[in-house]
Design goal:
Pfam families: Erythro_esteras
Number of domains: 2
Number of strands: 11
Number of helices: 16
Oligomer: single chain
Protein name: Protein-L-isoaspartate O-methyltransferase
GO biological process, one term: methylation
CATH architecture of the largest domain: 3-Layer(aba) Sandwich
Radius of gyration: 21 Å
Strand content: 5-15%
GO molecular function: methyltransferase activity
Keywords: Methyltransferase, Transferase
CATH topology of the largest domain: EreA/ChaN-like  fold
Distance between the termini: 45 Å
Largest sheet: 9 strands, mixed
Helix content: 40-55%
Length: 420
């Protein structure tokens, strides 16, 4: 389909986005789903966080959503979750809780935008019973060492009989001195794997978890930290090999963590997921499928009824962003140049240089063409971003799209960074 035809259809079907009241369209369209997936075109754009926060607040307050789950590490997000729920052991302020976000890239969750959301969630929870409080959890797989430490702390605190087993399991990792690459090389090429030990520990923690205990969420946290250890072990082993396995292990871990959270919160659970567009937008509608890659958006659609999953992509034409020049490099505020000609973002801009919402959905006949769609990572080179465009059938990838014409960078907190 010609670009002019697509632009005309965007002009005809888009809704202007100016205030939170303009989100009514999305609240009503997504409000009855069990899983609402909110994307972002980068991990360093303020507007994506603030609009996702506004939409999440309304879904929580008006549609009864149970928790927000994000592309972040479980231990650090759990620290913020305890603050949001005002638990006895919680940090007194969100800024204090965010000291746990010390793994690069810290800015993804330690930022002023999340501080404002966490304050709102804490205030909202103050009027609700403990079992009704809305949570904030991390779905990612990177926190191998931190998660092992959290399991040990929990088992020591509770006097659990699994403590000795956990210490034996984690002793297997000690020779690698918190170096994931060293472990991956050893496990892949010298068969020095710790998989059996951590899998058995996870099974025991799950089977022996007391669902009726006073702080059942703390027991769940220990179990998910053990799950992180299991899947992080597999992830770092797979990273040494070429191919899609490490990506798929990571996204399947996020699905499994989400499933355990959903089961824990009960049959009427409704979840909001915040992740990059590359994770929440259906991989089958992109060139990821040809590479053998799946993602959480695809798997949730495959596992659930069509009406139970609602996916919203986010993008921009130009602006600024927080990112690093290489993995572990200092964060910088960088320019986001105007979108490439005839990319999705360029077409949205040509349909009107203002913020807008566009309803999509797989049955939409006008947005089925394969179009480049920008994806910015935590490592970014704005002067050479031609390879940052993912060929996508937008109506197949998302149910709706939020377009911000000009965006600005996140407002990050400055923390002491632990380099992965």
């Amino acid at each position: 389909m010609k670009s002019e035809t697509i632009v005309a259809q965007i002009e005809k079907n888009a809704t202007r986005l100016s205030t939170p009241d303009d989100l009514d369209l999305l609240v009503e369209a997504a409000g009855d789903a069990r899983y609402v997936l909110l994307g972002e075109a980068s991990h360093g754009t303020s507007d994506f966080y603030t609009w996702r926060a506004e939409l999440s607040k309304r879904l929580i307050a008006e549609k009864g959503f149970t928790f927000i789950a994000v592309e972040g590490d479980w231990p650090s997000c759990y620290s913020l979750n305890r603050y949001i729920k005002n638990q006895p052991d919680a940090d007194p302020t969100p800024r204090a809780a965010m000291q746990a976000f010390n793994r690069w890239p810290t800015w993804m969750w330690a930022n002023a935008e999340i501080i404002e959301l966490s304050k709102w969630m804490r205030e909202f929870n103050s009027k609700r019973s403990p079992e009704q409080k809305t949570g904030f959890y991390g779905l990612d797989v990177y926190s191998l060492w931190e998660s092992m430490e959290e399991v040990i702390r929990y088992l020591e605190r509770t006097g659990s009989p699994e403590l000795a087993q956990a210490k034996r399991a984690f002793e297997c990792f000690e020779p690698f001195k918190r170096n994931e690459q060293s472990y991956g090389l050893s496990a892949s090429f010298f068969s020095q794997s710790c998989e059996d030990e951590v899998v058995q520990l996870l099974m025991n923690l799950h089977n022996n978890r007391n669902f009726g205990m006073q702080d059942a969420e703390a027991a769940l946290s220990a179990e998910i930290n053990a799950l992180v250890a299991v899947n992080a072990e597999r992830y770092y082993r797979a990273m040494i090999q070429s191919g899609p396995d490490s990506w798929n292990i990571r996204d399947l871990h996020m699905v499994e963590t989400l499933q355990r959270l959903t089961k824990f919160h009960g049959p009427y659970t409704k979840a909001i997921i915040w992740e990059h567009n590359t994770h929440i937008g259906d991989a089958r509608a992109t060139d990821m499928a040809r590479a053998g890659m799946i993602n959480i958006g695809q798997v949730l659609r495959e596992q659930n009824r069509e009406e139970d999953v609602f996916t919203i992509g986010f993008g921009t034409h130009r602006g600024t962003v927080i990112a690093g020049r290489s993995w572990g490099a200092p964060m910088e505020e960088m320019p986001v140049p105007p979108a490439e000609k005839n990319s999705w973002e360029d077409l949205m801009h040509r349909a009107g240089s203002f913020d807008k919402i566009l309803m999509l959905g797989p049955g939409n006949p006008y947005f089925q063409s394969v179009i480049g769609h920008r994806a910015i990572g935590v490592v970014y080179h704005p002067e050479d971003e031609r390879g940052n465009y993912v060929p996508s059938r937008m109506a197949q990838r998302y149910d709706a799209f939020v377009y911000i014409d000009e965006t600005k960078a996140l407002d990050p907190l400055v923390l002491e960074v632990v380099h992965a």
